[in-house]
Amino acid sequence: MTEPALRVDGLTKSFLGQTVLNGVDLRIAPGEIHALLGENGAGKSTLIKILAGVHAADAGRVTVAGRPLRPRHRLADAAAARMRFVHQDLGLVDELDVTENICLTSDFSSRGGLIRFGASRRRVREVLGRLGVDIDPGRRVGDLAQAEKVMVAVARAFSAEARLIVLDEVTASLPTPEVARLKDLLHQACRQGTAFLFVTHRLGEVFDMADAVTVLRDGRRIASARPADVTHDQLVEWLVGRYVAALAPRSGESHASAGTPVLRVKDLRATPHHAPLNFTVGAGEVVAFTGLVGSGAREVVRCLAGAQRPQEGTASLRGRRFPLGDPVGAAGRGSRYVAGDRQEGIAPDLCVRENLFLAHYCHGGRVLRPRRERRAADDLIARYDVRPPQASELPVVTLSGGNQQKVAIGRALSGAPGLLVLDDPTVGVDIGARVAIHRLIRQTADTGVPVVLASTDFSEVVSEAHRAVVMRDGRVGAVLSGADLTEQRLISESYRAREVA
Ligand SMILES: Nc1ncnc2c1ncn2[C@@H]1O[C@H](COP(=O)(O)OP(=O)(O)OP(=O)(O)O)[C@@H](O)[C@H]1O
């Protein structure tokens, strides 16, 4: 009988007396794509870090292709067992080309101590060819689209003759069509015997890509199954511990029509590659900018938030000049921003409570008495379901990634914003928090606040936006609303724009 590519038995780990993994078992067959699901803080990253040798388990055993790793194994042991890890930041060097990035970890071809660049490039071309990836090995990685970067990172892991590749939320900010390209690549690698452990919060990807799925909840393995044998509702129940009707997949709903335009943007060119863009957003309207990665949608939203300086353009909010590319000026007009990049969104040296009140104090809010501030922080933690519930005084960096995102959202929504600007607000958050965040965005919009959203998640765009602006190469490809705003149209318009350009 073939040994599993990975076998995990009774893995247990505690941090500061809190049990984070509790006797977790896992089996992954060679050539299998195995999805790992769990709410924020369920223990997925901790499991992966133990596999990688970053954290030592308190108990349990890891066996790779029939050979047990020694207890408290190190990074080098994981590498020797041919496990490779692709994290969300991908770990690529933008300044180097594809060949250099791939050979950095899997060795350059050399003779007599000298690197043979031609031979290295040929080898990389052969690896990319085996995976069906059409990227020139000489291209600078910084010039690639995000989906291509993900493919280079997977190819790099694959080229090291990996037996098991762990993908930690690498699809989190990839739009639906680009996930389909990644799926083809994984299937190519699987045919050659490589197995994948694949962390995602998108249940659709489990049904679309995975051969098997394991669900963790509060550090315990709740179930493992084949996606074909379970329903969406069953997965949700395993994830959150009960059936929650609100977590069923939502299709586009007819929103109340938007009010009169309050935000007017004129001739905005976010970068030298953008065409001038004119748009308005009504009171209570949610306008989404979307498209394939690199379409230029995100930059438009970042200019509004002040996170990026535009080339040119002017704006007004409720009749008053609104500064573009000026974070302090934008905040002074009541704009609140949730950054897509979590590193940008939190102050890592501060605790959760301090992070929650950062915007309040930075914008001249009244100083609260310590006890009142602690109580208010606890209320926000409960409202946004930040875990653990006693997180108030913990350093924010000890929270799981998704819970850090909930803190950033809580900070933006807690005041009374005059404009809400969101960049992929639900990346990395679990489905329960996603529903809660969407509800809060809608409640905020319902009070007359204009909302501008950049999102790579087409189902989010369909369910939350009144209007979607599909961009490509810094230009508007299409504007969709009402019955035209469907995932299918978003996909076809994203690609149609590419063909037209
Ligand atoms: N170094 C650490 N010190 C203290 N606590 C930690 C540390 N790393 C993780 N934790 C805690 O362990 C728990 C599990 O975190 P983990 O990052 O594994 O969750 P996750 O399932 O990956 O969540 P997410 O989906 O948000 O990434 C969380 O409660 C987190 O606060």
Automatic annotation (TrEMBL):
Pfam family membership, one: ABC_tran
Keyword list, A-Z: ATP-binding, Nucleotide-binding, Repeat, Transport
SUPFAM superfamilies (alphabetical): P-loop containing nucleoside triphosphate hydrolases
UniProt keyword annotation of Lipoprotein present: no
Domain ABC transporter per the UniProt entry, residue ranges: 6-243, 257-498
UniProt GO MF annotations: ATP binding; ATP hydrolysis activity
UniProt keyword annotation of Mitochondrion present: no
InterPro entries: AAA+_ATPase, ABC_carbohydrate_import_ATPase, ABC_transporter-like_ATP-bd, ABC_transporter-like_CS, P-loop_NTPase
CDD domains xref list: ABC_Carb_Monos_I, ABC_Carb_Monos_II
Stored PANTHER family: CARBOHYDRATE TRANSPORT ATP-BINDING PROTEIN MG119-RELATED, GALACTOFURANOSE TRANSPORTER ATP-BINDING PROTEIN YTFR
Name by which UniProt lists this protein: Ribose transport system ATP-binding protein
